[in-house]
Structures are given as structure tokens and as C-alpha cells.
């Protein structure tokens, strides 16, 4: 940490009714700016809570720089200008504050999973310098007042043109949401300096290396040793309540696939806890079907994924509600992130699927992700989708088939098309692979358009494989 750091905070209000995939792409574009050499730290994502009587921001960007000069260079950088221009149509309000931090204690990068409360103060008009200094003094003492805070910065805003009249900002970092929720800054501020303030705005966020709880943007893990699940690691499959088992597909269903690579030599009990925790999320109202467990086979040479989660929803809104649900966030933070070193996720809309929402236990599932070569037009994409859509007609062993275009690009490592084929069991799945002539004929139809392919096989676990603790 240098002796001086610049804090840069930008708030956005996404337009009502904005498509979630467009918002996800907006966050992804902003996140890409971390690669600029001026940026020491960048975190962006949705606001968990805002306390303001007149403003309703939905997203926050936090960046750190070494100097005001670096902030200015970032602001005028062509990449930043391009992102601002592309995102402008998605939000209808924005503001920003910047302040100087002297001798900040701790790391430049706020640890992923930390909870952060940002607070901005607007002084009453014509407040004297003595009042401003008094307020700054009280704010600076917050760190010592609340022992839950792990890092604290505050200062006077030096960019008044963008701040809507707010002149003082501070941020407090906590180990997690629980510690943050235990602290009430509002009463402290009112008691100590409320007489000097015209307005106060407080926002809570969670620092995340991803745009939604399963949207980690890990680099591909190449040539990692294969993880072999222990016999004691129990997969989980359930669709609760039990009456869901007879639910038929609606005209539109959201498919959500997450692949995990568990760290080598992870304690089997921790892997089992991860699977159990993820499996318990089937109880959430938004979930139509959820199955999770170890892969039967990973046919990708570039990725060494070991586990898969498959869930289904009625709509994108339900998927977003599931992702943001406190139970989901808790499982990801407590049981998934500590033991996984690679994760990817792909989501697509399945139209008019035939059969039950809930896959029969013991079914074998083959999931395929395709990454197209760069700069291919929609005609090529549609051609590839057409070939994928014809797969079921060529392989009679398939009992259910789903495919589509990924609508969560920030989480998919560049893979844009996906398919899911269900078979009665592993033997029928293997029979497809043994028909090499037909398989190769299908591959040849699209091979020239593909940069990369991920294929994984998975068996839907039986009820008796459910962990006894649930």
C-alpha cells in the first residue's frame, strides 16, 4: 500500500424493465476495465440495500488508483470511453464521488465475499469550514467505534460536478454480511453530526469476483490432475415438493448448468457438504428441478471439472431471484468457493421441451458447450444451432433434448451455445459414442466454425444417495 490512494465510487440506476442479460453484460464490460494499467482494484455489481429518501441506485462500481493523474488517465482511456458509451442506454441515473486516502491499512484489493457499506454526506448549505472539519473528524473516528470493521477510508470529495451535492464519502469493509448488518451507522451519524447534514445516503454491497453468485470468471485451468470422487461423496437430486415430479415442461423453461472443479486433495467431507448444501436449494420457491453431484466423465482436454449442478426455472426472473437468495449466497460463500478453483455456468431458454421437468433418477445426461470462432455472423450461429437442434432425430436413444444460446456471457468463458441430452441410463449414452460414423458426421457439419467444445457426462442420482443429514 502506498502512502496515498484514490477512491473512486460510481453509482448507477439501471432502467426499470431492463433485460437481465443486458445488465449482466453491462457489469461484465465494466469489470473488463480492471485490465487497464491505472487500476489497482476494481469491483462492480448490484447494490444489496440503499438508504436514501430520494435516490434509488441499483449498481455500484468501486475502483482504486495511485493518484488523481491515474484516475484522469483511466477516465479518458478509449476502453473506458467505449464502455461508458455502450452502457449509457441501460441506466437513467448515475453519480460519482472521489476522495484521497492517506496511509490506508490493509490490502488494496478488498477480499471477495466481503461486505462493504458506502456512505455519502451532503452538508447543509453555507456550512463553514469548521463544520466540515468537525464532520470529517467524527467520520474518521468510525473505524475505532465499530470493531467489526476490517478496513475503513473516508475523505472529502474532489469531483463536485458528478456528486449531486454530496461532499464527504466513506466506506467500511466487513468480513461478511452478518458483521455488516450488526452495525447501525445511521443512528451514530444522526446522534453525532445530524444537525449539520442535509442528506445521507448509505449503500451496502458484497465484493465479488463475479456478477452473480455462480458467475466466477476464473481463467481456464489447463492440464490439472483429474479429481476422482471418493465413494463417500454423495450426489444429490430432488425436486421438492414431491408433486413436482409429474410437472410437464411449459412453453419456456430456463436451463441453468454450473460446472465446478474441486481443488485436488480436498477433504471428502467438505465436498459432500458442498453437494448437500447445493442440493438443499431445491426447497427455494423459484426452483422447478435441481440435481447436483460428481461428473461421470469430463471429455474436455482444456478443463478438469469434477461436479455439475443442473436446475430449471420458469423464467429469467426466477433464476435471478434464486441467484440472489440469501440461502444460495450462503451456500456459495460457505461451501463452494473455499474448495473450488474453477467454475463456469451457462444459461439458456428451452422452448417447447417434451417430457417431465424432473429427470428420472439414474438417467444419464450429456451436456455440451460450444465456443464459436471470433467474428462469425448470425447466419453461422443459426446454422450451428440448426445442426444442434437436429441431434435428437439422429440418435434414437435420447429421451429428452434441450438446446439454446447462452444468455449469461459473463459466466461462460466464451461458450455461447449449449445442449443437454437425456438418456435412460449410462449404457444408452455409451451406445451413442460407439456409433462413430454418425457422431463424426454430426461433428463435421459444424467443426469448421468451432474454436472449442466442452462435453461432460453426468448421472442423475437416486434418492438413496441423498446425504443423511438432509
UniProtKB/TrEMBL annotation:
Coiled coil: none annotated. InterPro entries: Dabb (IPR013097), Dimeric_a/b-barrel (IPR011008), HS1/DABB1-like (IPR044662). PROSITE patterns: S_R_A_B_BARREL (PS51502). Residues 6-99, 115-219, 254-348, 364-458 form the Stress-response A/B barrel domain. Transmembrane segments: none annotated. Homodimer. PANTHER family: PTHR33178, STRESS-RESPONSE A_B BARREL DOMAIN-CONTAINING PROTEIN UP3. This is Stress-response A/B barrel domain-containing protein UP3-like.
